[in-house]
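Re: export button greyed out
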Amino acid sequence: MFPLDYHALLPEIILATTVLVMLVVDLTTRKKHFVALTAMVGLFAAFVPVLTLAFCDTLEFCAAAGVDRVLFGGSYVVDGYALVFKGLFIFAAFIALLLSIGYLETDRFYEGEYYFLLIVSALGAVVMASSRDFITMIVALELVSGPAFLLAGWRKGDPRSNEAALKFFITGVIALALLLFGVSLLYGLTGTMQFDQMALASVAVAELPLFTLGVIFVLLGFGFKVSAVPFHFWTPDTYEGAPKPVTAWIAVGSKAAGFVGLLTVAYLAFPGVTEVWGPVMWVVAVLSMTIGNIVAIKQTNVIRLLGYSSIAQAGFMLAPFGAAAASGADSLGQVFSATVTYLIIFVVMNLGAFAVVITIGSRVGSYELEDWAGLLRYAPGLATVLAVFFMSLAGIPPLAGWFAKFAVFQATIGVGNWWGYSIAIVAALNAVIAFVYYSKVLKPAFFDPVPKGADLEMLDAGEIPAPIGFALGLTVFGVIVLGVFPGVAANLGQYSAQVVAAIGG
Amino acid sequence: MTIIQFILVGSALFALGIYGVITRRNAVLVLASVELMLAGVNVNLVAFNVYLQDPILSGQIFVLFIIGLAAAEVAIGIAIILMIFRNRQSADVADLNLMKG
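Workaround output, generated via the alternate export path:
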């Protein structure tokens, strides 16, 4: 049997223990913020082993084991790539938790169970980052989405929340069934579930139409999680109807988990057959960017606008996949690291954007753009933070967003063929369109007068709850640091791309 | 017996499931159709497992996981559908039009 490497599994063990402890705490106390506190302690505790694992080769007690650890016969791997994303998911769950604490007090919610489901979802994402075979990956995927389905419908009495949950759920299970059908075909053709063996076996069967069918089914199944175009219909509705902190988690945490799955499957299971999946991803990326951006222009609701923006950003992150279509094994690492770099910035930037939109929305009592007029007059601080995040999303240089786009352009042009050039051109056009609707949000907030009949006393009186203030501070700091020192995100991207270089070389 | 017959059964179940998902308007029946799709996947996986003579039986083990996942999914789905039925006395998917995707 395999001797178990407890250090490598420690983040998952701590999170799994935390969710159980949370259930007990929920049972024994009426003060539900203790449950949130337990969750927070658990997330912090789980972050520590992620750090010790990442710096293992410099630490005395585990230098012998090294950073890369292979568990369960290659089904579960803890390496640089997995650790970067484990850290990122724990950060995203932490921010979503902070946003929830203030929000849950505004209405009648089941609180203890809410925190429980949120952390279970985060645990799924953490497992996802390490999974290196289809069985582990599908279980992790369901662990991420299952709780998210329930959380989307958490406002039980609100028909919009009900509708959000059902749309999310039905699209989700259909996508899962398609994904599983693809997996069954790939298993039949390659004879294995493990990605490293599939990488070897897939080259021989790449010509078969059935193989192409299997790959397309699998990629489309993940396309649902990342809200790429053929499966994007649920996105704006679910974002609008779900409780807003849940929206932040679905839009960032669960979406990033989908991207991790996509990256792992595409680059680790099928690195030798980029000509099969590359063109598919090229089409999906172009459609996602264009449709997401064009529909976003017409939106009047900020949350829906962020939903379409999130579809468009999924297109941006898929663009390097499309550019990989005709690139050799040597440039795979480059396109891989571009997507990772974008993802890291995406998580920080979008969590911040959702945090500030939730804060303003609950102050104003509406997420319609016209109701946000004159925000600068009564809440200059919030208006500034809003400007920081939306300018970052638009890609204005001192803020992190520009580097995310830059990394994508650099990688797609860098592969040096027409798959890359053409998608870089589409991406550049879309970056311009995106600028239009991001500035559309800022215009009423900064230049329009306060609407007549608005209750100014109520608008003035609102205070930012401490947890949300902390989340805002953390993400603003992150966006500025990542924008001024883009090397941080780029290095993490390169660091995780070693996993691809190891296979390609 | 050849592998083709089994895969045909699996694919037919899957296709019937897709047909049901597209045509059914009742959310419970949509859920049942998804179960049909998953059953098709299970038939495929077991057939491939036997055909390949996989020494570590990953196909059959995956089927056990899928059965578990499907059960969990039904539990979640029924909870959501019940909640909707309480609020609007209907589980019709076509009635979900408060927001336009």
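Chain B touches chain A through 45 residues (CB under 8 Å). The button fix ships in the next patch.
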